[in-house]
Every structure is written in C-alpha cells, then in structure tokens.
Description:
By secondary structure, this protein is an alpha+beta fold. 12% of the residues lie in helices and 27% in strands.
Amino acid sequence: xxxxxxxxxxxxxxxxxxxxxxxxxxxxxxxxxxxxxxxxxxxxxxxxxxxxxxxxxxxxxxxxxxxxxxxxxxxxxxxxxxxxxxxxxxxxxxxxxxxxxxxxxxxxxxxxxxxxxxxxxxxxxxxxxxxxxxxxxxxxxxxxxxxxxxxxxxxxxxxxxxxxxxxxxxxx
Length: 172
C-alpha cells in the first residue's frame, strides 16, 4: 500500500458506523504492563461516534487532561449484522480491518469514572482510524499481524495480534 503523507488531510476509512465498540485490556502485554490480571471475559466499552476522525487529524484533549494515552488497535469492520452468532460464523460477518488509535484520558477513565471507562475514552477525536480498510480476503492470518504506533516519529508501541487474549472470531 502506498504511504499516506502526514501533511495530507484524509478522512476516516469508515464513516458513520452504527457503533464504535472497544475491547479493553485485550493484549497480554498491555495487561502485564498495567499490572492487571487478564480478564476472564472481554471488557467492552463504547466510544462516541464523534470520536471518529482521520488518521492524521488533530486530537483535541479535554480541559485539564493530565494523563493522555494512546494505543494502536486492530479495528474490525463488520459488514453485516452479527447478532447471537457462533464463533464459527463470525468471519462471515467481517468486511475487513483497519488501524485504530484508541486515545484515552487515563485520569478521567480510571480515577474519576466510578468504574466505567467511557468517560475517559469517548471524547471527540479520541478515535482516529485508517487510513485504509483491508478486506478480510487480503489477510492470511488476522491473528498474526504486527501493529506499531509512532508519536512524532518515535516508536511508542509494538505488538502483534497473536497476543490478543480474545481473538477476532471470539470478539465478533
């Protein structure tokens, strides 16, 4: 795929989705670095659709933000309704995949939230996605994809989908 210039404004690769669902602590390395035991079930949270923006767009931090954080994530783009389906049926419902930058304000999320994460994850611009959607037929093994996040050219995070606690078919 061609490299997209950092100076070019492009929109998110998905516009106006019905839902923007996140899964918390789903990588074994992230659970380990936060000194939290891996969850027994997926931790589900929602991001507001207004959090969606393009991959090069400015992320606006809330007033008083003191613990802003970012995580590179695999975005699963659902192509048809997936309600009460089995794990074996899940791949039939996936259109493709994209990169998601899950921005969080950790103080709002963990210290000022009374246990619910949406307060620190759902702000406007806290969900940059793209620049591309890769259709599922282009991916040989979704559970073996490298992910990397850079801030101002410096690598801040590296991982692989092989370390997901709950795999793609389970989550869908």
